[in-house]
């Protein structure tokens, strides 16, 4: 596949999947993987709601760097593709949440979920809104190598 074809593939994977897997680590470097429902804002910002006391949220509070994988696990063996991201993430606060909660809520509604409001991601509610900003995107090429792609 050419790089432009891999970029189209990466965008299609992000657009068509509901969950991404966060790869976080705690202060000592112990890894933790967590699948979360997400809403993309373009192809470099990814939003999700989580409780601040979950392991991945606590990990991000102390170490904001993470890896993300988005893939369709229902593909036949040997045919699946995935997008791999290097990112920095954290809880959204203040005015950053206004636009982000609208994006997250619209996507949730498209997939049969309930609408989300700022009250749903503010104390004393259980969840907070998080955002990852990707600095690198990769897709597996046919030779099982990770090819960097630009998804601007």
What report would you give on this structure?
This protein has 152 residues and is an alpha+beta fold. The chain has a single domain, classed as Roll (Pnp Oxidase, Chain A). The chain contains 3 helices and 8 strands, in the order αββββαββαββ. It has helices at residues 3-16, 55-62, 96-110, and strands spanning 19-25, 31-37, 39-41, 45-50, 65-71, 82-91, 128-140, 146-149. Strands 1, 2, 3, 4, 5, 6, 7 and 8 form an 8-stranded antiparallel sheet that branches. β1 (19-25) and β2 (31-37) form a beta hairpin. The longest helix has 15 residues, at 96-110. The radius of gyration is 16 Å and the shape is globular. The two termini are 19 Å apart. The mean pLDDT is 93.
Summarize the structure.
The chain has 152 residues and is α+β, with helices and mostly antiparallel strands. The protein has helices at 3-16, 55-62, 96-110, and strands spanning 19-25, 31-37, 39-41, 45-50, 65-71, 82-91, 128-140, 146-149.
């Amino acid at each position: 596949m050419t790089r432009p074809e891999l970029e189209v593939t990466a965008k299609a994977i992000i657009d068509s999947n509901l969950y991404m897997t966060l790869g976080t680590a705690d202060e000592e470097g112990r890894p933790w993987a967590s699948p979360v429902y997400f809403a993309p804002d373009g192809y470099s910002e990814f939003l999700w709601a989580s409780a601040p006391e979950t392991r991945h949220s606590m990990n991000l509070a102390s170490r904001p760097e993470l890896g993300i994988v988005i893939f369709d696990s229902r593909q036949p063996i040997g045919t699946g593709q995935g997008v791999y991201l290097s990112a920095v993430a954290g809880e959204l606060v203040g005015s950053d949440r206004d636009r982000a909660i609208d994006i997250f809520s619209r996507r949730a509604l498209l997939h049969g979920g309930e609408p989300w409001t700022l009250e749903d991601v503010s104390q004393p509610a259980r969840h907070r809104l998080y955002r990852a900003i990707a600095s690198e995107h990769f897709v597996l090429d046919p030779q099982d190598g990770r090819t960097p792609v630009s998804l601007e």
